[in-house]
Amino acid sequence: MRCLLVRVGSKSYSLASYSKITGQMVRTSSSSLSNNPLVTDKAFIDGKWVEARNKVTFEVSDPATGDCLGNVPDMSASDTLKAIDAAKKAQRGWAATPLKERSGMLMRVKQLVDEHSEMLAEIMTLESGKPIAESRGEVKYGNSFFEWFAEEAKRIRGDILLHPIKRDSRYLIVRQPVGVAALITPWNFPLAMITRKAGAALAAGCSVVIKPAEDTPLTALAMAKIVEKAKLPSGVFNVVTCSRSNIEEVGDTLCKSKDVRKLSFTGSTAVGKHLYSLCSSTVKRISLELGGNAPFIVFNSADVDNAIAGAMSSKFRNTGQTCVSTNRIFVQSTIYDTFCSKLSEAVKKLKCGPGIDPTSSLGPLINNRAVIKVKEHVDDAVSRGASVKVGGAPATELGPNFFHPTLITDVPKDALVHRDETFGPMAAVTKFETEEEVIEMANSVDVGLAGYVYSSNAAQIFRVSEALQFGMVGVNEGIISSELAPFGGLKESGIGREGSIYGIEDYLDLKYINLNF
Ligand code: SIN
Fold first, then answer.
1. Does the C-beta of 401 come closer than 6 Å to ligand 1?
2. Which of 15, 200, 385, 413 has a 20 to 30 A CA-CA distance from 239?
C-alpha cells in the first residue's frame, strides 16, 4: 500500500519519507513485501521469534517511495541482555561442535542463501534503495563469506614448540574462540556486512548478537530465518532490532557487558571512536571498519578508458554509499581534459530511479540528510571555484532522497570533499602535476581505507601503492572487495581485517600452554 502524501511548500512527500526527515512517527502498512516469506515483524533471540519486552515497534520504510515496508521490535537494554545471555549459554556448545559439523552447518546457510537469493535481494533493495542488480550482486558477494569461512573453520591451527631447555616439555599454542561477539552492522551493505562478520565469528566458534542498522533490519531478520532453516543451535545467532532512539542504549549494553568479549562495528568514524571508548571498560577485543576518503589517482601513462571504467564503478557503486567509494579523483595534467570529458559522457549515461526498477543504475540515498550532505559538498566546491559538469542538484522530481549523478571538476584542494566523505553520487576531479604532489594530497586525510592508482609504469605503481597510507589499494582496478582479500583500513579508518585468511583471527584468542611432563 502506498503511503499518504504530505505537501511541504511546492513539494509532495510520502508520509513515511516525511517522517524519516522530520522524525515524526507515522503508522502505515505496505503489501510490497507481504508475499516474501523471509519478511518478519519479530526479532530473533535464543532461536525464538520475539517482540520487544515493552511491545514497542518501529517502522521500516522504502527510501525510494517512503512506503512502509513493515514494523519490527524496538528493543532496549533488557532485550539486549536477554540476547547476550542466550549467546553466552549457547557459545560453549557451539565451540565444542566438531569442526566438520560446524563447517557443514555454515555451508548449509550458504546453500540456503543461494536458494533464497531473489527474496533477499528484493528485501535489500526495498529497505536500502540499492539498485536490484547490485542487491543480487551483494547476495553473491555476502554469501562468499559464509562459503569461505565454512572452509576456514577447518583450518584453525595451533603450534607445538620444543622446550628450549627441558627435553620432554613442550610449548603448546592454541587458538580459541573469544566468546560472545557483538556485531553492529550498517545499512549500506545490509547482508554482506553481516555475513563478513558472522561468517568469521561462527567459524571461529563464537556465538553472535547482531544489531543491524535501524534502516535495514529486515535483511538481518531474513538472514536469521535462513539460519533457523539451517538448524544452527538456538542462541548461536541472535538479532536485536532497535530504532534510532534506542541505539545508544542497545550499543551501550553491548559494549559494556562483561559477557560480550568482542565487538565488531562497521560505520562512521565518529561512532566507531565512541564505541571504542565504551569497550575499554571491559577491555574487549574490537574490530572497526570505519569511514574512508578514497583517492583515485590517474597518471599520464594510464589507459584512460580503463580508468574511466574504474572511476565509474568505484564512485557510483551503491549510489556512492560505500566506505571504499572514490571520493577524490586526481588526474595528471596532460590527460586531464580528455579524462574529464570522457567521465562526463559516462556520468550522463547513469539513470537515477527506484532501485526496484531494473533500468535504474542509481537508487535513492538512504535518507534526506544524505541528500543535504551531497548538496553541501557540491556548493562548497563551487564556492571555491569548481565547475559543475553534470547534475549538481537533488532529483526532487523522483522524491526527497534522490540526487542526480554529479560530476564537478577543477576542485581545489581546500574543498570540503578533500576532508570529508561525500557518501553520495558526486565525482570530484582535481588536476595535479607531480607524483610527490599527489601522494601528499592523497595522504593528507586522517582516514586510510582504500585508494586507487592508474598507471602503466611498473616502478611508479610500486612506489605509489606502497607510499599510500591506505589499507587497500586498487592498481588499474576499481573494485577491490573479495572474500579472499583482507578488508580494512589504516589510521582512523579502523582496526582489524575482515574476510581472507586473516579475518578469522579477529575472533580467536591465542593461548600458550606450557607442558611439563
Ligand atoms: C563498506 O562500504 O563498508 C563495504 C564495501 C565492500 O565490502 O565492498
1. no
2. 15
